[in-house]
Amino acid sequence: MLQAPPSHYLLTASLSQEVDHRTIEEVDIDGFTLMEVAGSSAAKKLLKDYKHAGWSHGLYLCGKGNNGGDTLVVARYLLQHDIAATIVFLSGTDDLSPDAQKNWELLQQFDDQDQLQHHKSWEAFTETDLEYSFIIDGMLGTGLDSDLRGSYTSAVQWANEQSTSVFAMDIPTGLHADTGQIMGESIQADRTFAFGGHKQGFYLEVGPAQTGDVTYCELPFPNQFKSSSNTFLLDESWVPRPTLQPGQHKYASGVLYIIAGSEGLTGAAQLAARSAWAEGLGAIILICPRGLLSIYEQTLPSIIKKPVGSKSDEHFTRQHLANVLEIIGKKEGAVLIGPGLGRQEGTIQFTNEFLSQNTRDAIIDADALWALAQQKDGWRKPDNTQWILTPHPGELGRFTDQAVADDYNRLTFVRNFSSDKQITVLSKGMPGIIGTSSGPCYLTNYNTRYFARAGNGDVLAGKIAAYVALGQEPDQSCANALLQGKQKLDSYLQDSSDLPEPKDFI
Ligand SMILES: NC(=O)C1=CN([C@@H]2O[C@H](COP(=O)(O)OP(=O)(O)OC[C@H]3O[C@@H](n4cnc5c(N)ncnc54)[C@H](OP(=O)(O)O)[C@@H]3O)[C@@H](O)[C@H]2O)[C@@H](O)CC1
Ligand SMILES: [K+]
Prior knowledge:
CATH topology of the largest domain: UDP-N-acetylmuramoyl-L-alanine:D-glutamate ligase
Structural class: alpha/beta
Shape: elongated
Number of strands: 19
Oligomer: single chain
Number of domains: 2
Bound molecules: ligand NPW, potassium ion
């Protein structure tokens, strides 16, 4: 089972508020202290990372809540480094949260060189025309409760038009912490300082475009207060890589059966097989309709071929079922079924009967997903197997009558679907989402749009299947396949500005 470190737990707005609240109530670290840690850690990172930028004057846009309070802490630290501050209070200063009020008083006490100016409304500010080295967005954090109101909309629009860098405190103002949707308007930050946890919305919908780079700032929150988080950020810093045991007999270091290909679609089977083979498996056994054998004999020399049926067969049908089950019954191994199978009626019957009788762990991709979805909801995974389904958005949509309209809906659907069916689901798209049978979901944080080309799904399915055959758990296999693709993408983009092709990810 994947086990994300607390720095990679994704928080919703309500979980963020609960963690704040419980830390204050149950471990007696007060809100003022939390605010000091949040603001000072953002300030220190800013001072360190931009020390050569020659900053002289910052603009701080503050709401009346604790997000504004964090921002006043940043202003105080930067003032100590001779960076003048102009503060704009979008909702005035009469109604600041108690901790923000305290910080406003403190900030004024620190201004011994008269470097602080402030305006009590957005309208009062627009009359000035100073140049600023940077803008800090401290208007709204996790307290956002609707589309932006009042002058917040104008302030966000104005900040987005400026050429200076914009740094968001905790979350860009106007971005929904749970869904990644824009609530009327949203700050487009160059960098976001995430206090105490990444917010789920950073990685859904337009979240990545609004946050810019995300910097995690640790707060003194007990880890167990975050443990009800059920969504995690995937990255290579913590996902364990699969281990190969070189020198073992080929059948001891992972066997993968691939049931794939039909007339005109043999390329999919080949890509999946090559992709899996590149991961160092002991043996790959491609089961194919006998009529296609001669193609694979030429193109896949390292792969064992087991043809079924007669020479005129160019797609799978029910008549092949007993033979296929007999082949995979011989040696332990995992099964990848789907790439290029085709959608003939006979193939659909073959696939669904195979899946109901097969006792090997199975990776179900492409046309096998099509076949499964033809049964509507009338299918169940046999108890003693593990299944991984790898649908792209269109394929995922066939498993539900309800529209999976946005990423938040997709995340919710994937979570419910995986646990109802007791399967692992890798929902392809941006972000990629891994749903697990026990509930946790994992999100990618890189540009997966590069993978939206025909053939990449076959490569991905081959990788996942290889890792399952090497003994990794389903969730780890999916995570590793995604991260392996990311690494290949990163190294490809270093040398080329062309769009990568499936072969580049093998
Ligand atoms: N101790 C802690 O808890 C810690 C919290 N921390 C920090 O605090 C942040 C959360 O602070 P928060 O809860 O005070 O909410 P926050 O986002 O600042 O503002 C809420 C106010 O905004 C208003 N408002 C709401 N929606 C609006 C809209 N659409 N358009 C316009 N206005 C709107 C609404 O006022 P209303 O208009 O309803 O009177 C409400 O009062 C969190 O993100 C982190 O930065 C860290 O320092 C760590 C310790
Ligand atoms: K903010």
